[in-house]
Amino acid sequence: MDRVKHLPLWPHAETSRFIRSGPHDWHVQEMGDGPTILCLHGAGPSTHIWRYLMPLLAGQWRVLAIDLPAQGLTRAGTLRRCGLEDMTADIAQLRSEFATFCRVPAAKVNDRMN
């Protein structure tokens, strides 16, 4: 998907950022403050599916939504890592790097997502 073309039209585009982690270039949306909720979509969709829920949750929570590899605006570094086990490991690596790239302290991410 062409990020330059599609990002301006993306729901909550102003909350989007791109994070290079592992083999992938992840599209992450972040809004709100408080304990962290990570929103993961199923196979095929994108962060679009969270467009109505994110603002509602953001009043009490820090909401993070990611596009899975090769879906939405996330660029897969290799399609060989799009299976469930590899994708799970790559999401865990991304999660551990949230403290570096996002506003979420590492302790908060670990407390909420284990």
Give a topology summary.
Blueprint: H1 3-6, E1 16-21, E2 24-31, E3 36-40, H2 53-57, E4 62-66, H3 84-101, H4 106-113
Parallel strand pairs: 3-4
Antiparallel strand pairs: 1-2, 2-4
How would you characterize this protein structure?
The protein is globular and about 40 Å long. It has a single domain, classed as Rossmann fold (3-Layer(aba) Sandwich). It is 31% helix and 21% strand. The chain has four helices and four strands; from the N terminus they run H-E-E-E-H-E-H-H. It starts with a helix and ends with a helix. With 114 residues, it is α+β, with helices and mostly antiparallel strands. The protein has a four-stranded mixed beta sheet. The longest helix is centred in the C-terminal third of the chain and has 18 residues.
**Individual helix count:** 4
Number of domains: 1
Biggest beta sheet summary: 4 strands, mixed
Number of strands: 4
Instruction: Give the end-to-end Cα distance, rounded to a whole number of Å.
Output: 31 Å
- Poorly predicted regions are 104-114
CATH topology: Rossmann fold
The percent range for strand residues is 15-25%
Helix content: 25-40%
CATH class descriptor name:
Alpha Beta
SSE string, helix = H, strand = E? HEEEHEHH
Mean pLDDT: 83
Shape from CA axes? globular
Biggest sheet: strand arrangement: 1-2-4-3
